[in-house]
From TrEMBL:
Belongs to the TonB family. It is a single-pass membrane protein. SUPFAM superfamilies: TolA/TonB C-terminal domain. It comes from the Bacteria. This is TonB family protein. GO terms for biological process: protein transport; transmembrane transport.
């Protein structure tokens, strides 16, 4: 039996407790108490949780001299379930560490107002103090004990997402012997007053000299976010009525893999799950099972002014093997360490970039149908913010496989490489084996579609035979390929797909494209679409349709800069 998929890395990669007296300290990670997110007329009683949050200090940042922190915003229903979780971090590794300490299956004891359980929104902050601030040192720098994000009212409101985009700014803070903190300079002029006004809500422990508290300055990172977009009025979040546990996919049993999948979906005003789509995953083989499980959940809809409304929600789903150590492997394997001496100085790192979102490349249709296998390698330029800046095919004996892997890699996401504890751009090599005998690399829906094409092509409907026009329920735009020459600013492609009886997109193929890169980018995008199930005469069936795509080069974004020392 096959040992399961291994995504191979080469080229440039080695490859709550209440009250301040009960702060949890482990490897100099300080987790503060559960606190109200909004202090304006909060309920009488905070939610509580028996299991403590225990994030681990990221190994790659243990030698960093800089302070860091991360924060949860948790939206809880009146039965103690977590409905929405938003994570912020001064560096992605800190946000990731805090997020991995959270198990959504464990309920809270709900907050109360006048003795009655109510919906609540709370926060939890984890601080990662550097070694220079260690508690046991007689001479130590100030310690941060608690922090919270700062809302900039001048920015345009945005909805919150699980890994929320934010701006991290650095400023000097003077901490007095009694722990009182004041802004001491170094802040951007337009934010100085905002940071100064927020500091009284933060908590510090003073520096020490010879074991005695002294006054000292500290370089502190602040997370600045826009106001939250709301509909206004009294809001009540959606409440889970039925949560179907996901089944570990049978096709993945032999793989020995574990996986976390984040699914975004709409809870409509009837409490149904609509438009589910995977927004983050490290093992795409679990995506279909996560979507299927979430689609069966049922909610009491959110309300505004007592009226039910549609709400965008994101939910994490975890897949683990009971008998495997750690629940299984993540499936990534380092094949060759980087030779950093061959890289430009600005790309030489202490800690390599870390893959956080993996996208499964779509097997080129003709090669899949003929049962041909092959390998492709790409090199990815990862920005200092973890975004993919550029992808180039390094090796592809069969060009179609190179185009397919390139299109998938454009959608990867990373924690950035680090040098001296600061994020920097870096190169990342990735290799993928396309093997039709490895069933986990091709969705079962694609195999079923191929069998239908080969054995019963007459059963495939055409669009004019449907009861109503086919309509996408969930879409995802394609990425403009970074490998396209700079003088090319537009492109187009037409992709043919088979939509099965459940509305899933199967065996997408390029019909035409102004450049091959546009065709495969369109295939990669449409593969994640979902449609309303097609019917003919009231009976579900499969239909073949063509989908046109138009590409336009996006404006260049300003590069993300690392914090100053």
């Amino acid at each position: 039996m096959s040992p399961g998929p291994r995504w191979l890395l080469r080229c440039c990669v080695p490859l709550f407790v209440l009250g301040w007296l009960s702060l949890m300290l482990a490897q100099d990670v300080t987790v503060g108490p559960i606190s109200w997110l909004d202090a304006d007329d909060p309920p009488d009683q905070l939610p509580t949780r028996k299991a403590a949050f225990r994030p681990e200090f990221p190994e790659e940042l243990k030698q960093s001299p800089d302070l860091g922190w991360a924060m949860f915003e948790i939206w809880l229903s009146d039965d103690g379930r977590s409905v929405q979780l938003v994570t912020y971090g001064t560096q992605p590794a800190y946000a990731d560490a805090l997020e991995h300490s959270y198990d959504a299956r464990l309920r809270f004891k709900p907050g109360k107002r006048d003795g009655r359980a109510v919906n609540t929104r709370v926060r939890v902050t984890a601080v990662f103090n550097p070694a220079g601030a260690a508690l046991k040192r007689a001479d130590a720098t100030p310690r941060l004990l608690d922090a919270q994000v700062i809302i900039d009212p001048r920015q345009k409101p945005e909805r919150r997402e699980p890994m929320c985009s934010n701006r991290t700014v650095w400023a000097n803070v003077r901490v007095r012997p009694n722990g009182e903190a004041t802004l001491a300079g170094g802040a951007p002029d337009e934010l100085a007053d905002l940071l100064r006004g927020a500091l009284p809500q933060w908590r510090f422990a003073p520096a020490r000299r010879g074991g005695q508290p002294v006054e000292a300055e500290l370089r502190v990172p602040f997370i600045v976010v826009p106001p939250e977009a709301t509909s206004g009025g009294e809001q009540v979040p959606p409440k889970i009525l039925q949560a179907t546990s996901p089944h570990y996919p049978w096709s993945m049993q032999a793989s020995g893999l574990r996986g976390d999948v984040v699914v975004e979906f709409v809870v409509d005003y009837e409490g149904r799950v609509r438009k589910p789509i995977v927004v983050r995953t490290l093992n795409p083989g679990f995506n279909a099972a996560a979507i299927e499980a979430i689609s069966r959940w049922r909610f009491e809809p959110a309300t505004v002014h007592g009226r039910p409304v549609n709400t965008l929600v994101q939910q994490g789903i975890r897949f683990e093997l009971r008998d495997a150590p750690g629940g299984g492997s993540d499936g990534l394997e380092v094949k060759q360490k980087a030779n950093l001496s061959k890289l430009p100085p600005e790309l030489r790192y202490d800690t390599p970039p870390k893959l956080t979102t993996l996208v499964q490349p779509k097997y080129p249709y003709a090669l899949l149908r003929e049962g041909k296998r092959g390998t492709a390698q790409v090199t990815v330029l990862v920005g200092a913010d973890g975004r993919v800046l550029e992808v180039r095919v390094a090796k592809a004996p069969q060009p179609e496989l190179g185009y397919a892997l390139e299109a998938a890699a454009e959608m990867f996401a990373f924690q950035p490489a680090l040098k001296g504890g600061h994020p920097i751009p870096a190169m990342y090599g990735f290799e993928h084996d396309f093997d039709p005998s490895e069933r986990t690399l091709v969705p079962e829906s694609d195999w079923a579609a191929l069998r239908l094409e080969q054995k019963h092509p007459e059963e495939i409907l055409t669009a004019n035979k449907l009861d109503q026009p086919i309509k996408p329920e969930t879409t995802k735009p394609p990425r403009f390929p970074s490998s396209v020459p700079q003088e090319v600013v537009e492109g187009e492609a037409v992709v043919e797909v088979l939509i099965d009886h459940k509305g899933r997109v199967c065996v997408p193929r390029v019909v035409s494209a102004s450049l091959p890169e546009f065709g495969y980018a369109a295939v990669q995008a449409v593969a994640e679409w979902r449609f309303d199930p097609p019917t003919s005469g009231g009976k579900p069936g499969a239909v073949r349709v063509s989908v046109p795509f138009a590409f336009k080069r996006p404006p260049l974004a300003a590069p993300a800069s690392p914090p100053s020392s």
